[in-house]
Amino acid sequence: MFVTIIGNLCKILNKMNYYHKPVMPTESIEYLNVTPGFWYIDCNLGGGGHTSKILEKGGKVIGIDLDNDAIREVAKKYNLEVVNSKRGLRAFSDNLILAQSNFANIDQVAYELDIKEIAGIFFDLGVSSFQLETAQRGFSFNLDAPLDMRMDQSFGATAADLVNGLHEKELAELFWKYGEENFSKVIAKKIVEVRKSKRIETTNQLANIISSVRRKSPVDRTHPATRVFQALRIAVNDEINSLKEALPKASNLLSIKGRLVVISFHSLEDRVVKNYFKKLEDEQKAKILTGKPIEPSEEEVNINPRSRSGKLRAIEKVS
Ligand SMILES: C[S@@+](CC[C@H](N)C(=O)[O-])C[C@H]1O[C@@H](n2cnc3c(N)ncnc32)[C@H](O)[C@@H]1O
């Protein structure tokens, strides 16, 4: 009873503030091995949860995020003025720099700031609770809103553009490739049938179309639209390619003995990270610090259910 009341109170407060509970904060900081006075790059700033932990340990942080709201909120938290440069929003202080950018451009951000010695780089992939719970961002099948899903709302195709514009076969492939959705063909067929009479514009419309042809999974009891929404989000934000582009740039930027720590939330991302770390180790460029990926404790999952699929992998650069 008490837990439910606290939970509901938190939900109300979350809607009022930029909210995201950092996943595996202690483990992340431990693996980053934060040394006071050195620079770290937080590639997924979000609500600044991990950034604040690095700052508390005396590290300096360059925080990157695609999302305007994340940059503005963290700037507000640290009383930083946000400037609108031609490359995106920026905010500066002696120990914290914020840059609105895709982390795939991490090399350009570091070059622009002229910071060469980077002791650690951190990724906490995916979306923030704030993004998921802000209806108008269009990430959630639980909240009716325009079907958007762009992390950077200033450009690019929305989820509605994909749903209404791709051919049936392309939709089915997308749902299978990025959502591992077993009913991808049936869902794509239904979408194409429905959109002949009316453009699909909202999260509710799409969720209802999916529910009409796909029952709730008896195994994991997730909402029938879960996998399709994940697939669309990954495609809209080109998430896998951004990660593939960012990892080699990140490992090039790191100083020797620097740490690269990544938390991923689904098998597609985790595979990319695992394979890239293995390649670096085979080439004797890095030492893998996490044989098996680190997962959140039971206690953390109870407090923060969104952490449950998190997997943390870390390497140390050796040459
Ligand atoms: C899981 S949240 C990070 C939460 C943060 N670590 C915290 O504890 O507050 C992921 C964030 O990464 C951002 N993001 C996702 N893909 C990105 C990319 N390719 N480049 C830059 N930011 C990205 C999202 O906009 C979101 O704010």
Topology summary:
Blueprint: H1 2-16, H2 25-32, E1 39-42, H3 49-56, E2 60-65, H4 68-77, E3 82-85, E4 88-92, E5 96-100, H5 106-113, E6 118-124, H6 129-133, H7 159-165, H8 168-179, H9 184-195, H10 203-213, H11 226-236, H12 239-253, E7 254-264, H13 267-282, E8 286-288, H14 298-303, E9 311-317
Parallel strand pairs: 1-2, 1-6, 2-5, 6-7
Antiparallel strand pairs: 3-4, 4-5, 7-9, 8-9
Helix pairs in contact: 2-3, 8-9, 8-11, 9-10, 12-13
The chain binds S-adenosylmethionine.
Question: How does this model look, in words?
Answer:
- With 319 residues, the protein is α/β, with parallel strands linked by helices.
- The chain has 2 domains: 2-129 and 241-317, Rossmann fold (3-Layer(aba) Sandwich), CATH 3.40.50; 152-236, Putative methyltransferase TM0872, insert domain (DNA polymerase, domain 1, Orthogonal Bundle), CATH 1.10.150.170.
- Helices cover 45% and strands 16% of the residues.
- It has 14 helices and 9 strands.
- It has a 9-stranded mixed sheet with strand order 3-4-5-2-1-6-7-9-8, sandwiched between helices.
- Strand 3 and strand 4 form a beta hairpin.
- The longest helix is centred in the last third of the chain and has 16 residues, at 267-282.
- The termini are far apart.
- 44% of the residues are buried.
- The model is unreliable at 1-16 (pLDDT under 50).
CATH H-level superfamily title of the largest domain: Vaccinia Virus protein VP39
Uncertain stretches of 5 or more adjacent residues:
1-16
What is the share of helical residues?
40-55%
Q: SSE string, helix = H, strand = E? A: HHEHEHEEEHEHHHHHHHEHEHE
The CATH class of the largest domain: Alpha Beta
Q: Care to count the β-strands?
A: 9
